[in-house]
Design a protein that fits this description.
Blueprint lengths: L23 E7 L5 E8 L9 E3 L25
């Protein structure tokens, strides 16, 4: 696949009754070539501050595509 999802288990399910990525915001983790190589989930409802971070089994990616030195501001907004 062009978007790199062929490398992942799309529709991630660890085989248990409760999916660990439930109630998480999911972020794709990309490599240097901008291919999605893994997923990261950040739990949004965990009140006891344990198990807030979840990764798929291969846990790779997150290439830090830093902005240019002359960048003064980064604006982050949701994509529709």
């Amino acid at each position: 696949m062009k978007n790199g999802l062929a490398k992942l288990e799309v529709g991630y399910n660890n085989g248990s009754y409760y999916n660990q990525l439930k109630n998480c915001i999911i972020f794709p983790l990309k490599d240097r070539d901008n291919n999605i190589v893994s997923l990261y989930g950040r739990h949004i409802e965990n009140k006891d501050n344990t198990n807030r971070h979840f990764y798929t089994a291969n846990r790779q990616g997150l290439y830090p595509g830093y902005s240019a030195v002359e960048t003064e501001a980064i604006i982050i907004r949701p994509v529709a």
